[in-house]
Design brief:
alpha/beta, globular
């Protein structure tokens, strides 16, 4: 029997309260560099490859050694701050990257401890310990309060989302169901889903699907143009999830330059971080969305 998880209400885009962004922006644009660390011998039953996994370990390490610095250079050129989906283990393995992110004014949110440690099958105490460990590690190294979470490989448990507000997390990137922020139903507290694009994720587009960089850039620009048009009526969100070991390759980095040049050439664009989007939504739109959803469900 199929079970509806009931984490969010069905609110059609054409029938929901209007969202406004700071300065009358049409689109909030945020870029999510996934800066990750893969273990050479991943533990647990859910890793699909034999170990030691030299290929994936070294491929990801390319991003940390070469690709991430190209990504930083391009983003800095256009005044775009990153919202880093960070494996906390990187704080111990390559602290220089953390220092560089902080120096650029980038926001850090947790992507678990290692991208090779999925949370499937964990009980609540184990998940709680993982969240707390990753958040505390990032805070200790960066001095930032960690407000967001994206589970490694978007793995999950039935109650994972319920634990996030308990540990100070205000927004999740684990669901890819909308182009606007949405309230997420949890046992206690408030949690916002900030849009995180599955289709424009470079690892999916250029990695898994093998699209050439030119096609990826065309997709991202087309998405921006459509959201910008819709943003004349209600504020929209464009997320660009990128991975330094994918888009940071020499033959792909120009695609990031092309996309950011296009985005920053338009007016009424809010170049935000994920945390800024979540905070604005919580302060200005969360309550209205919850009330509207309750009214619709009452009518049904």
């Amino acid at each position: 029997m199929l079970k509806d998880p009931g984490r969010y209400a069905y609110l059609p885009l054409i029938e929901r309260p209007k969202i406004t962004w700071p300065g009358g922006a049409r689109v909030a644009v945020w870029v999510a560099p996934n800066i990750e660390f893969y273990e050479l011998q991943p533990p647990g039953p859910f890793w699909p490859r034999t170990v030691p996994d030299i290929l994936n370990y070294s491929h990801r390490d390319y991003g940390n050694r070469a690709g991430v610095w190209r990504v930083m250079e391009v983003m800095q050129r256009f005044g775009v701050r990153g919202s880093v989906s960070l494996n906390a283990g990187l704080c111990d393995h390559i602290p220089a990257i953390i220092d560089a992110c902080v120096g650029l004014g980038w926001e850090l949110f947790s992507h678990g401890i290692y991208n090779t440690r999925l949370i499937y099958g964990m009980d609540e105490d184990q998940v709680r310990a993982m969240i707390r460990d990753s958040v505390d590690t990032i805070r200790r190294k960066s001095g930032q309060e960690v407000r967001g979470f994206l589970a490694p490989a978007i793995s999950s448990t039935e109650t994972f989302l319920d634990l996030l507000p308990e540990l100070g997390i205000r927004y999740t990137l684990d669901m890819v169901f909308d182009d606007q922020p949405m309230p997420v139903r949890v046992r206690q507290g408030r949690l916002v889903s900030v849009p995180y694009s599955f289709e424009l994720n470079d690892i999916r587009a250029m990695g898994a699907r093998g699209f050439p960089p030119e096609r990826y850039a065309a997709m991202a620009k087309a998405a921006f143009d459509q959201l910008y048009e819709e943003g004349a009526e209600t504020g929209m969100v464009l997320c660009l999830p990128i991975h330094p070991f994918i888009i940071g390759e020499p033959h792909r980095i120009a695609a990031l330059d092309e996309v950011l040049r296009h985005v920053t050439s338009r007016e009424a664009v809010w170049l935000a971080t994920a945390g800024e989007i979540a905070d604005w939504y919580l302060a200005h739109h969360y309550d209205a969305a919850v009330a509207f959803a309750a009214e619709r469900e009452g009518q049904r």
